[in-house]
Amino acid sequence: MQAVQFSEHGDTDVLEYGEFPDPDPAEDEVLVDVKAAALNHLDVWTRRGLPGINLEMPHIPGSDAAGVVTEVGDEVQRFEPGDHVAVSAGVSCGHCEFCRDGDPTLCVNYHILGEHVRGVHAEQAAVPADNLVPVPDHVDWQVAGSSSLVFQTAWRMLMTRAELQPGETVLVLGASGGVGHAALQIAKYAGAEVYATASSEEKLDYARELGADEVINYETDDFADEVSDITGKRGVDVVVDHVGAATWQQSLASLAKGGRVVTCGATTGPNPETDINRIFWNQLDVLGSTMGTPGEVDDVLELVWEGHMEPRVRDVLPMSEIDRAHEMLENREGFGKVVVVPDSEL
Ligand SMILES: NC(=O)c1ccc[n+]([C@@H]2O[C@H](COP(=O)([O-])OP(=O)(O)OC[C@H]3O[C@@H](n4cnc5c(N)ncnc54)[C@H](OP(=O)(O)O)[C@@H]3O)[C@@H](O)[C@H]2O)c1
Ligand SMILES: [Zn+2]
After folding, report:
1. Does residue 217 line the site of ligand 1, with CB under 6 A?
2. Tens of pLDDT along 150-199?
3. Which one in 9, 142, 207, 334 has a CA-CA gap of 20 to 30 Å to 150?
4. With helix as H, strand as E and coil as C, how does the chain read?
5. Has this prediction a pTM greater than 0.85?
6. Ligand 1: which residue has its CA nearest to atom 21?
């Protein structure tokens, strides 16, 4: 088969699309003929190399894909050839203390398809049946292949971790990104008043289209000041931050008394200064969040499949142009998800 792969970490020039041995599904795995896949910022981190993760080379990146089941392992009951499926990339061990307690995202052995083990940016992928969700036939491949990771992440951040309530105010940073644009839609769906930041007027227009009540260009304006103006000095109930060092101080400054900031990422760096006085005096909650449980994945993807929310597609590229796809994320180009499709499917 043809697969995106790299044999060493580095810039986009380490990426290749070429021959790779066909995957052979294990007893608990399903062979998927990939129709569409999508990038996440994680693919950039994985390509560059993450501390403590030693990959078997060549590595196939990619955590999001959807396609048709072509073969199932002997133990697999839930799927059969012809089924449409999407990948949900979080893998848990099932037997550690945290898995037994019912939250597999806290698993001590938690890992992610495409990050720690080979992923799905390829013509075919052998995926554990537990990491597949059924996709109704009417759902477009681009939607099916680009929703899972960012919608589950944003859903858990807002609904489970921040316990968002209707009528609350939410500030979503980097609303043009995958997680950001999912969080914006989820917050609106949950009945919140939503403010969004992005780095260009064009991106702010998209954010408005997705329902943002107020938008702030955080390249040109101090967003904490803007939030203060919009809310009459009160601040917002919840901030969704995945940008990290560049926004952290202002994220805390944007919160109302008793507010919650929920973070899932640190694209601009993981070690910002923190004003601890602000945290205790304003009695803020700092919440971390990663991926989603199978139940959370089912809940949010059902809403996507039913059309209540949807991934915006920045661009669709053949997998042979994977270097360009990575560049789009690194250069902050566009709004929503970058989809890649096996060249043979175009
Ligand atoms: N813990 C988890 O489970 C989890 C899950 C998903 C993602 N994440 C993390 O969350 C972050 C966002 O992921 P994503 O897939 O949504 O990424 P993405 O699609 O590339 O979006 C990132 C957004 O961040 C904004 N940004 C601000 N400064 C940036 C910079 N220096 N470089 C690039 N973008 C910048 C950009 O929006 P503007 O141009 O509008 O500023 C961009 O659209 C990543 O760090 C990722 O690793 C974590
Ligand atoms: Zn576990």
Report:
1. no
2. 999 999 999 999 999 999 999 999 999 999 999 999 999 999 999 999 99
3. 9
4. CEEEEECCCCCHHHCEEEECCCCCCCCCEEEEEEEEEECCHHHHHHHHCCCCCCCCCCECCCCEEEEEEEEECCCCCCCCCCCEEEECCEECCCCCHHHHCCCHHHCCCCEEECCCECCCCECEEEEEHHHEEECCCCCCHHHHHHCHHHHHHHHHHHHHHCCCCCCCEEEECCCCCHHHHHHHHHHHHCCCEEEEEECCHHHHHHHHHCCCCEEEECCCCCHHHHHHHHCCCCCEEEEEECCCCCCHHHHHHCEEEEEEEEECCCCCCCCCCCCHHHHHHCCCEEEECCCCCHHHHHHHHHHHHCCCCCCCEEEEEEHHHHHHHHHHHHCCCCCCEEEEECHHHC
5. yes
6. 177
